Every structure is written in structure tokens, then in C-alpha cells.
Amino acid sequence: MLRSGGMPSGSVDYETQTKPYVARIRATEAQFAAILTPFAGLDLTGLGGRAVQLAMDYLGLPYVWGGGNINGPSGGGFDCSGLTSYALFKASGGKVTLPRTSETQWNVGTEVPMALAQPGDLLFGNWGAAGPGHVAIYMGNGQMVHAPTTGDVVRVAPVFDGMRARHIL
Q: What are the residue boundaries of the NlpC/P60 domain, all occurrences included (predicted)?
């Protein structure tokens, strides 16, 4: 292949394998570009950006109720507050240790208007009598990284309506 400058056209392998494979890749190009669009232009510098990056290292890891802590996933995954505990602890070099649940994490830091939320700020939602039932990490551009619920995985999603932000790092 090197001598011919790539897969020579006209060969059986080129016509039956390479050419159809390249066509399939090109056909999905727009789909993959759409996935990456929310990440374009994100400022992931500083401690907040580091927290986002640390959480994103676990994209696709299963949600496990009670899973995760400052040392990483446990029981095979993270729950929402386990993910935030891990990411902020590691991003801060061990200086920020969050309480275990979303309800108690709400009491840490300073609330900021959603319009002023920065990457690494915590987002709280699913409000009930005891406070927030869910916590996520703000990425910027209206996106968050979180461990959503049983049967799901750590993933990026648009910020939910009704979420409130707190600045910690």
C-alpha cells in the first residue's frame, strides 16, 4: 500500500471492501458532526474546565445508585452526586470534598444565575421537598455532563428546565 500511495483503485479489495467502507463513513459524517457541535467553542481551562474533562472521561459508564466517590467509580459506575464528588475533588487537587448527596451538595458554594454559570459549576434539578434530587456539571453552551438515572450512562445532555447553578471551584 505504501508503494502505491494508498489502496490501489481497481483492485478487488478496493472495490469490495475499501470503497464501500469509505462510503459508509462519509454517510455518517453529518451525524458525528452534530454530536460534536455542543463541544465547539467550550472554554475548558481552569479548575472548572478540568472538572468537566474529568467527568467526561467516564462518558458511557453506567449509572449505579450510590456509585462513585472522590476516588472514582464504585460498583461499576457513578450516580449523579458520586460523579460530581469525584470530578470536583480531582480538579481541585483534593481541596474540595463535597457531601455525598445532591441534596447536601446544594449547600456548598454560592448560587449564581443560570445565565452566569461557568464550566465546572454544579447544576441542580429535580426539586422536591428535601431539595434537589439531581446534580450535574455545567459544560457551557447550555450543556451538562451527568449520570442521569438507573438504566442510563454518564452522558452529555442539554441543561434541563428549572435547574439552578452553584459556583464551587
A: 45-169
